[in-house]
Amino acid sequence: MKRGAIVGVVALALAAGGAWAWLESANGFSATAKPTWIEAKLASLSRRLALPGGQNQVRNPYPPTPERLSAAQQLFQTQCSLCHGATGTGATAVGQSLYPKAPDLRGSSQAKSDGALFYSIRNGIRMSGMPAWRQDSPAQIWGLVSLIRTFKEQVSRP
User: In 3D, which of 17, 52, 63 has the Cα closest to residue 38?
Assistant: First the structure.
């Protein structure tokens, strides 16, 4: 056999073996199963790659005034709390039934930049339960970003 054909056969065998191993550990297509490590890594990578260049550097242009936070809280209660809970924990029946589960907005979401949070809310996240909220104005979405930042503060209080 030619060298290229051998490399192709080996690559195909490795891919097939990897797919088989993933399917064996994935527990089918159940939404109640915990994602495998490879699913989590691929999902994280795809989210990073899907974020347009420069979006991580975008800062919230609206200061978090009491009025803006109050309006954002009302919007959050009507649009977000079904999955994320009133305080962003994600510990709701709907949020925990999704695959992947709705994230705790007090945790790893706090490490995301303002621009990444804005982009995720505005455009949604494919293959998850996160819809795009394109009907909301940019000011409303920035208000939600500010509100999400307050969830971190609630956790750190004694």
Answer: 17
**Cα distances (angstroms) measured from residue 126 to each of 63, 99, 102:** 30, 11, 13
pLDDT value, residue 155: 59
- Residue 63: C-alpha distances to residues 7, 48, 60, 75, 147 (Å): 57, 26, 7, 17, 11
- Flag residues of the chain having pLDDT under 70: 1, 4-5, 18-29, 153-158
Backbone angles phi, psi at 91, to 5 degrees: -90, 60
What number of other Cβ atoms are within 10 A of residue 106's Cβ?
21
Left (φ > 0), alpha (ψ -120 to 50) or beta: where does 36 sit?
beta
45: amino acid identity, one letter: L
